[in-house]
Specification:
The chain has 421 residues and is of the alpha/beta class. It has 17 helices and 15 strands. The strands form two sheets. Strands 9-8-7-10-11-14-13-12 form an eight-stranded mixed beta sheet, with helices on both faces. A seven-stranded parallel beta sheet has the order 3-2-1-4-5-6-15, sandwiched between helices. Strand 10, helix 12 and strand 11 form a beta-alpha-beta unit. Helix 1 packs across helix 4. The longest helix is centred in the middle third of the chain and has 24 residues. The N and C termini lie far apart (71 Å). Bound molecules: nicotinamide-adenine-dinucleotide. The site of nicotinamide-adenine-dinucleotide has 28 residues, from helix 7, helix 8 and helix 9. Nicotinamide-adenine-dinucleotide binds next to helix 7, helix 8 and helix 9.
């Protein structure tokens, strides 16, 4: 693809997009503070950066902070269904940020947009699902020498990158933003928990209360989702493959069973595992007429849509974002958002207050990579503890919440082993 300044749906949507960006900024005090500091200190001066993130109003605020810090950015979508076209237009027309993202773009366009972002010749990559890293390693290896490092936003990307590092094929350092406590404990748990329910309600308008709500996976996202579904009055059922997580779900008060059993009972199914074919042919065979199936894990691989398509005698769209699969015995199964991240496909992704912390980590990690250019190894790094602590400190400050500090006596006590009873 020829490098063009941008590829967005309609540049005339810019004013609407700017309103959305300003609205999100009100809930992003930590990122705003970082943006102010970056504007003065310019820690990213001259850095070319390619970002592959959900193109939302919160991401726009991250882009503005990075730009204030001096970065020269190209942005593409990390999911074909998550782009806000108005925000993309504002980024291009109001802020002159090269943006390649159109909501609903097909697979070819999606990858052309990734190529366009990489044509920018970045020294830094910012991924949500490791697509930039993956394309660079597969087909643009000659560019890798130009790259000082990258960041990764989500669990699934970190898993892929760790696998690359373990096999010795990762060719530049990555900071796993997802691993920051101020990211996964808040974004995955509270952000995805709330926005997944929001996506299901917006797509279907079903009442959650009284429904049997089956959640596959009791990790950070599953825990957040389970507690919110319970808060809505659902009867929550968890399926897991990890015995410790399954036990935790039991002790948190949820029913835990195998998917083969849950499939017969559930009214709503949500997969949040990062795994493949978690809802599969035998499960579809057992589900009740009218069951709703959604995914909030990173890829649209968790519901085996190919198998469901094979089983179906007909498929039709019954509401925006709701596909009805009619089976030979007359049962109808409803798949939301084509099995893609439902919180982005049918709602607006995470609330800005949560993305504030995730993106504060992203901005500070970009600064960290710029400062440590050439000094890091080709592996996946955790976010430095001082960045994590700084993000939490700034967030508390923005909420006007003060916490105690250790006294000298307490520090001594906690670091000694001699003190006994
Ligand atoms: N929708 C969003 O906006 C959003 C936000 C954050 C993370 N994510 C994605 O959500 C997924 C989960 O993230 P997380 O942080 O909770 O990860 P996690 O690793 O904390 O949890 C995943 C859980 O799924 C379980 N699991 C794996 N295979 C399973 C199977 N076949 N059946 C049942 N359970 C299974 C694992 O044992 C684990 O407990 C990832 O793909 C992540 O990228 C999405």
């Amino acid at each position: 693809m020829k490098l063009q300044a941008a590829d967005v749906k309609d540049i005339k949507l810019a004013a609407e997009g700017q309103n959305l960006i300003d609205w999100a900024a009100r809930e992003m005090p930590v990122l705003n503070l970082i943006r102010e500091r970056f504007a003065k200190e310019k820690p990213l001066a001259g850095q070319k950066l390619a970002a592959c993130l959900h193109v939302t109003s919160e991401t726009a605020n991250l882009m503005l902070a990075l730009k204030a810090g001096g970065a020269d950015i190209a942005l593409c979508a990390s999911n074909p269904l998550s782009t806000n076209d108005a925000v993309a237009a504002a980024l291009v027309s109001t802020h002159a940020i090269k943006t390649y993202a159109i909501r609903g773009e097909d697979n070819d366009t999606y990858y052309q947009h990734i190529e366009a972002a990489l044509d920018h010749r970045p020294a830094m990559t910012m991924d949500d699902g490791a697509d930039l890293v993956s394309v660079l390693h597969k087909s643009r290896q000659e560019q890798i020498a130009e790259i000082v490092g990258g960041t990764e936003e989500t669990t699934t990307g970190v898993v892929r990158l760790r696998a690359m590092a373990d096999r010795g094929v990762l060719r530049y350092p990555i900071v796993a933003v997802n691993e920051a406590d101020t990211k996964h404990m808040f974004d995955n748990r509270y952000g995805t928990g709330q926005s997944t329910i929001d996506g299901i309600i917006r797509a279907t308008n079903v009442l959650i209360a009284g429904k049997k709500f089956v959640i596959a996976g009791y990790g950070w996202v599953g825990r957040g989702l389970a507690s919110r579904a319970k808060g809505h009055g659902a009867d929550v059922i968890i399926t897991e493959v990890d015995s410790v997580k399954a036990l935790e779900a039991v002790m948190d008060g949820f029913r835990v069973m195998q998917m083969a059993d849950a499939a017969k009972q559930g009214d709503i199914f949500v997969t949040v595992t990062g795994d493949v074919n978690v809802l599969d042919r035998p499960h579809f065979g057992a589900m009740k007429d009218g069951a709703i199936l959604a995914n909030s894990g990173h890829f649209n691989s968790e519901i085996n849509l190919k198998a469901l398509d094979d089983l179906a005698t007909g498929v039709r769209q019954v509401r925006p974002g709701v596909q009805e699969y009619k089976l030979a015995d007359g049962r109808r199964l409803h798949v939301l958002g084509e099995g893609r991240l439902i919180n982005l496909a049918a709602a607006e992704g995470h609330p800005a207050a949560v993305m504030d912390m995730s993106f504060a980590n992203q901005a500070l990690c970009a600064e960290y990579l710029a400062k440590n250019a050439g000094k890091l190894e080709r592996r996946v790094y955790d976010v430095p503890d001082d960045i994590d602590a700084e993000v939490a400190r700034l967030k508390l400050r923005s909420m006007s919440i003060a916490i105690d500090t250790l006294t000298e006596e307490q520090k001594k006590y906690l670091s000694s082993w001699e003190e006994g009873t």
